[in-house]
Amino acid sequence: MPICRFSDAEGNPQFAIYEGSRICPLSSLTDAPVTQAELLAGGAKWLADLPKPSESQWQPAPDKLLPPIDTPEKVICIGLNYRDHAIETGSEIPSEPVVFSKFNTAIVGHGDAIRLPRVSEQVDYEAELVVVIGKTAKHVSADDAMDCVYGYTCGHDVSARDWQKGRPAGQWLLGKSFDTFAPVGPCVVTTGEMTDPSDVRVKMHLNDEVVQNSTTAQLIFNIGELIAHLTKIMTLHPGDLIFTGTPPGVGVARKPPVFLKPGDVCKVEIDGIGTLSNPCVAE
Question: Which residues lie closer than 8 Å to 23 by C-beta, 6 or more apart?
Fold first, then answer.
């Protein structure tokens, strides 16, 4: 079932079952507050074994939600991983995953504002399916990799192109890591709900226009292959996030280019998960 995080009336973060317009705090179904470690370790089976919520246990979903995963240790991103996106940028199809990262200070939740930095004039949008790691993984084969996945969420890889490509030698890490440049949410859908992420539609709505629209069938490297590649190099831990790449239609590839401005609203819509919405404001 979809799980979100929210701030209760006392300002304490809690996990809840998410149904779009309403939420049910997990604390109302358990004997004690649920920690992130317990949630990730329990997986889909733990959630399935919870009592079914009564109508009185539901409450309206708040306009803003916390990031569904609290302070991930690693936020790993894959570049040029949609075949049609690589083609639109004039890039060669990668022979192995293109990997970069964001700092976890870029993470924000559903409804939070994307702050457009005063030092950038070319902030771009990128809708992405994000993998949430559920088990410690090192030297995992592609065949076994999916056993390490807890679930999936919507992600927005906001990118300052004039930093990513326009600074000396290119500054991918800095161009991708401004504060608020990694919205995620509104919820995490476990592998028990999304059993096959290989052909899931990913869209970006910029205000009233659909500007990205493709499916994960276009991924050059699938999720299992990405995890196998990454775990040759690093140990993945529960709660780590993998942004799997963006479809075509990004602003920098348009003619003329389209960059984000104050007042814009970005909505990442992924089948089976929901819609992650974030307004843009000037820093």
Answer: 4, 6, 16, 17, 58, 59, 60, 61, 62
The answer to whether position 85 is within a domain reads yes
Mean pLDDT by 10 residues, the chain (283 residues): 94 95 95 90 92 96 97 96 83 91 98 98 98 98 97 98 88 95 98 94 97 96 98 98 96 96 98 97 97
Instruction: Tell me what pLDDT residue 270 has.
Output: 98
Q: What is the pLDDT of residue 41?
A: 95
Q: How many other C-beta atoms can be found within 10 angstroms of the C-beta atom of residue 192?
A: 15
Residue 10: give the domain boundaries. 3-60
- Indicate whether 67 belongs to any domain: no
**231, 138 contact by CB (below 8 A):** yes
Model pTM score: 0.96
Query: CB–CB of 212/246 below 8 Å?
Result: yes
- Per-residue pLDDT at 83: 84
> Same domain, yes or no, for 113 and 53?
no
Residue in this structure with the two tokens 């317990």, named with its chain if needed: 38
- Encoding tokens for residue 52? 């079914």
Residues 144, 150, 156, 162, CA torsion sign: negative
Helix (H) or strand (E) run with residue 78 in it: strand 75-79
List, in sequence order, every residue forming a beta bridge with 201; answer none if it has no partner.
Answer: 215
- Helix (H), strand (E) counts: the chain: 5, 18
CATH number of the domain residue 129 falls in: 3.90.850.10
Token pair in block for residue 118: 């005063």
Whether residues 54 and 154 share a domain: the answer is no
Domains of the chain: total: 2
Q: How far apart are CA 67 and CA 86, in angstroms?
A: 29
